[in-house]
């Protein structure tokens, strides 16, 4: 949509306000999808919920590609938004629940890798389809998004159901069969079953029971887990990443790139940088841990946003077309380092960590709530970026995001212990004490199941 919006605005004669609404409405509708996905996943299962979300994507892409009015574009974008809500909630939950502890971080972060590969494909297709006639180009950009969604809707049906969801619904033999399929040895499968079974039996079966435990009578550990798991989801997009991704053509134009082809080509390279660094995160998350990677990521985000804000302020104060020659490459580099820093920690670890720290009985609804709040902050950035840039300049907007990222670093440092290598059923014990005790627990030697036991 970042590149397609340029062509849509020209073809359908949309105003800046309509473009801003078209881009931002996806996350408003994703909020609705998130709130319903938790209940649906507990009722029909994790993998079938992925299929439901994919069907919404197919419908949204089809409607948008055939739209000849702003209203139909909004309808298709809303359908896609509901699909976003389902996908962002269920993908990390499913990956977390089927992954062994030793590789859970990398596997649970894989959905974010796929999102970025899709974004890179979107940026690239925008560049090439932009050379087609105006009306055909943007329709091809949006319509082809339904193809991978259709493949996903069918392909996921051949994957195993979450053994923890099966156990929670009393399907004991099926759960144990899946554990044997996912484990290296039968002994390992039985060991995991011995840990899953007591937790699954104690899990409430009704949504009312889950919400009651979360909000009416939460225990101190549950309260701390909700603060950590839901909190990082809520704050993820306060860094302003969506402003840069969705409005990257405007950012590069403000930085001094005037050619449309050059703007789109730079956007493609930005997507490539994101993909490379998120692949690096997959290799590092189970080696260095969640905390070091996440906090290092935030440090890079803060520095990059401050540098970008400063450079854009200098460009704005210069006379038109008379900015210093160094400002354009510095601004572009700052954008690239920003998305790279986000992608190596803040992007992939957020979904993974929030799924890990919430217990089985609360996981689906807790992640559902967290992703819903995540979509609200995402929508707030998408719907206000243009207006905020007009009000305090684009450089000022990035200074604001840098300040919010600093607050995020403080929150994570004081509220989120390390979870690397711990079986899901043992993570809850880290939240039974204050932060200092949890921090000490996270550094102890812990058992890891799989081929490579380590600290």
From TrEMBL:
Gene3D superfamilies hit by this protein: MFS general substrate transporter like domains
Topological relation to the membrane, as annotated: Multi-pass membrane protein
Stored Pfam families: Sugar_tr
Record localization: Membrane
Coiled coil, from the record: none
Domain Major facilitator superfamily (MFS) profile: 1-420
Molecular function in Gene Ontology: symporter activity
GO CC, any one term: membrane
Similarity comment: Belongs to the major facilitator superfamily. Sugar transporter (TC 2.A.1.1) family.
Alphabetical list of NCBIfam families matching this protein: SP
Protein name: Major facilitator superfamily (MFS) profile domain-containing protein
């Amino acid at each position: 949509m970042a590149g397609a919006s340029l062509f849509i605005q020209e073809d359908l004669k949309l105003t800046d306000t309509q473009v801003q609404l078209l881009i931002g409405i996806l996350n408003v509708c994703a909020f609705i999808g998130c709130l319903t996905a938790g209940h649906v996943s507990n009722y029909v299962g994790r993998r079938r919920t992925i299929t439901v979300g994919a069907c919404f994507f197919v419908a949204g892409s089809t409607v948008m590609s055939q739209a000849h009015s702003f209203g139909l574009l909004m309808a298709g974008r809303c359908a896609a938004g509901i699909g976003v809500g389902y996908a962002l909630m269920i993908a990390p939950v499913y990956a977390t629940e089927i992954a062994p502890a030793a590789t859970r971080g990398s596997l649970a972060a894989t959905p974010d890798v796929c999102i970025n590969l899709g974004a890179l494909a979107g940026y690239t297709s925008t560049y090439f389809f932009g050379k087609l006639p105006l009306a055909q180009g943007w329709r091809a950009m949006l319509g082809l998004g339904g193809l991978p969604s259709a493949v996903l809707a069918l392909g996921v049906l051949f994957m195993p159901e979450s053994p923890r969801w099966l156990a929670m619904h009393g399907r004991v033999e099926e759960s144990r069969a899946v554990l044997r399929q996912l484990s290296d040895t039968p002994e390992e499968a039985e060991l995991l079953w011995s840990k899953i079974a007591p937790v699954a039996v104690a899990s409430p079966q009704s949504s009312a029971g889950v919400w009651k435990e979360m909000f009416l009578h939460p225990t101190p550990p549950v309260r701390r887990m909700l603060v950590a798991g839901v909190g990082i989801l809520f704050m993820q997009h306060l860094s302003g990443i969506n402003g840069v991704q969705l409005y990257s053509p405007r950012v590069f134009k403000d930085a001094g790139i005037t050619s449309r082809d050059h703007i789109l080509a730079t956007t493609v390279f930005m997507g490539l940088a994101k993909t490379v660094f998120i692949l690096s995160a997959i290799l590092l998350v189970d080696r260095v841990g969640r905390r070091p990677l996440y906090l290092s990521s935030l440090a890079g985000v803060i520095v990059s946003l401050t540098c970008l804000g400063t450079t854009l302020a200098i460009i704005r104060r210069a006379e038109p077309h008379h900015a210093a020659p160094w400002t354009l490459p510095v601004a572009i580099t700052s954008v690239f380092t920003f998305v790279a820093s986000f992608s190596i920690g803040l992007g992939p670890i957020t979904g993974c960590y929030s799924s890990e720290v919430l217990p089985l009985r609360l996981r689906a609804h807790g992640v559902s709530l967290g992703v819903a709040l995540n979509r609200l902050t995402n929508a707030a950035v998408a719907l206000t970026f243009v207006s905020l840039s007009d009000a305090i300049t684009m450089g000022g907007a990035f200074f604001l995001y840098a300040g919010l990222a600093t607050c995020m670093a403080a929150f994570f440092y004081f509220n989120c212990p390390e979870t690397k290598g711990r079986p899901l059923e043992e993570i809850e014990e880290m939240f039974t004490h204050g932060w200092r005790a949890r921090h000490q627990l996270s550094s102890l030697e812990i058992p890891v199941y799989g081929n490579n036991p380590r600290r």
